């Protein structure tokens, strides 16, 4: 028996409850983890509300990221033993493999021995953000030294990871945020330039920053009307990678910009990397190397206790956070 967060209907944070549930032993090629920390993601709020790409089966668990100590291993698992400190690459299904629990089971192929200098809270804040940013910027866009990359929703955990990855490569990260309130924090986090999209002309500022070369890569979580000025500032042959849809406004298709500059507009899910063993291996090597040399360092917004999961989800949906929200058990 162990405590787990579940919900029995779609809705706001208040539908989440902590229940005591039976826990099965890990099956073949599985490991069971005694969870010490959880990383929260917007996808979990979407599942809770019924607007995610996956459908909940009630009562449903949730959660994509965890770090802890291996409690037990299933048949066929030789690379881990009880007592190992590990973190989890987000599974393709959080309904099948929910992380919000004292004991959680995952496929062994998604378990990683994280660097020993990384505590459980930081380890729970690694994989979703860095895999998402790596897959877009490195794996798909082939970001190079000197490239100008525009990063929207820059104060999110993924946005901050993208800034760090761009700096590790030697690219020029331009952070877009709604207001000037987080400007200093974003500069301190490594952004070469910060644009407050509600206060400044996005297109003019990007043109000023990128000059005649233009912005080669746009990493966007927002969509909406900003597509026009973003694509207007892009370089010929540039790539816009869309991984979210935070804007409630319609997203126009910038036909003239796309045609005149031969732009690529591409939808992206981190699952592309996770389900491909070769791509995932390359991503893990890049991220673990960055964690070890200090060029990649998770930024945490706030830490909550397990019994504060409702308050943690309220904070998740407030958009006030700067970095990753972590829950400890």
UniProtKB/TrEMBL annotation:
The keyword Oxidoreductase applies. Coiled coil: none annotated. Keywords: NADP, Oxidoreductase. The keyword Translocase does not apply. It comes from the Bacteria. GO terms for molecular function: NADPH binding; oxidoreductase activity, acting on NAD(P)H. Pfam families: ADH_N, ADH_zinc_N. Residues 11-327 form the Enoyl reductase (ER) domain. PANTHER family: QUINONE OXIDOREDUCTASE PIG3-RELATED, ZINC-CONTAINING ALCOHOL DEHYDROGENASE. This is NADPH:quinone reductase-like Zn-dependent oxidoreductase. The lineage of its organism: Bacteria, Pseudomonadati, Pseudomonadota, Alphaproteobacteria, Hyphomicrobiales.
């Amino acid at each position: 028996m162990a405590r787990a967060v579940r919900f029995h209907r779609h809705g706001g944070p208040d539908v989440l409850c902590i229940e005591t549930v039976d826990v099965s032993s890990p099956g073949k090629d599985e490991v069971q983890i005694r969870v010490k920390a959880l990383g929260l993601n917007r996808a979990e709020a979407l599942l809770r509300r019924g607007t995610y790409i996956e459908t909940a089966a009630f009562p449903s668990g949730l959660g994509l990221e965890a770090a802890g100590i291996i409690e037990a291993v299933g048949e066929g698992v030789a690379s881990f033993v009880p007592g190992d400190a590990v973190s989890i690459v987000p599974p393709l299904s959080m309904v099948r493999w929910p992380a919000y629990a004292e004991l959680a089971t995952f496929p062994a192929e998604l378990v990683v021995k994280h660097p020993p200098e990384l505590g459980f809270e930081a380890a729970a804040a690694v994989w979703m953000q860095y895999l998402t940013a790596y897959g877009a910027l490195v794996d798909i866009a082939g970001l190079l030294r000197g490239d100008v990359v525009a990063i929207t929703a820059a104060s999110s955990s993924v946005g901050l990871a993208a800034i760090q990855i761009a700096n590790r490569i030697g690219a020029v990260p331009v952070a877009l945020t709604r207001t000037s309130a987080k400007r200093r924090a974003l500069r301190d986090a490594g952004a070469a330039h910060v644009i407050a999209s509600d206060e400044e002309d996005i297109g003019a500022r990007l043109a000023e920053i990128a000059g005649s070369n233009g912005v080669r890569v746009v990493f966007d979580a927002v969509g909406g009307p900003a597509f026009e000025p973003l694509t207007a500032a892009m370089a010929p042959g540039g790539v816009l990678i869309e991984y979210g849809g935070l804007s409630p406004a319609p997203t126009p298709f910038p036909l003239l910009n796309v045609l005149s500059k031969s732009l690529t507009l591409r939808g992206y899910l981190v699952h592309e990397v996770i389900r491909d063993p070769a791509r995932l291996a390359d991503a893990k090597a890049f991220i673990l190397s960055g964690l070890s040399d200090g060029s990649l360092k998770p930024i945490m917004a706030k830490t909550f206790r397990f019994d504060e999961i409702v308050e943690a989800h309220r904070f998740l949906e407030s958009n006030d956070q700067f970095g990753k929200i972590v829950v400890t058990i």
